[in-house]
Amino acid sequence: MLKDYTNKIIQKLGKSGYKVDDAISTNNLFIVLLERLIQLLRGFYLQIYLKNSGILFVGRNCKIKHCNKIIFGKTIIIGDNVNINALSKHGIKVGNNFSLGANSIIECTGLLEIWAKVY
Q1: How many CA within 13 A on the CB side of residue 99?
Q2: Residue 10 and residue 14: Cα distance in Å, rounded?
Q3: How many domains does the chain have?
């Protein structure tokens, strides 16, 4: 029952061809879904500041600076301990079905280079 419901959600998120492995226990699936729910709640909070057209899952201890310079597509997963600094002339644009793994860093420095050239 839980696997069938989860498979329907996965399809609605645009992940056609994906499904929950039959070997995963209901208990383990529940733990994964609970974690994703918490990430989704963090994503809802962050969407207040982002230009986002889809669902955003955000891990623990993420630092995202200059949210107004970030455009995300649909179904974005940001892992734990991710640092994003989008301060650059054109910011960051990410397409659909994108995952950024745990402990990743995106550091835009384009704007700082422009300032350095002026002085």
Answers
A1: 6
A2: 7
A3: 1
Tens-digit pLDDT string for the chain (119 aa): 888 888 888 888 777 788 888 899 999 999 999 999 999 999 998 888 887 778 999 999 999 999 888 999 888 999 999 999 998 888 899 999 899 999 999 998 765 555 555 55
Rounded to an integer, what distance in angstroms lies between the CA atom of residue 116 and that of residue 64? 24
The domain containing residue 21 runs over which residues? 2-118
CB 61 within 8 A of CB 80: yes
Q: 28: which 2 tokens?
A: 């383990």
The CA distance from 118 to 96, in Å, is 36
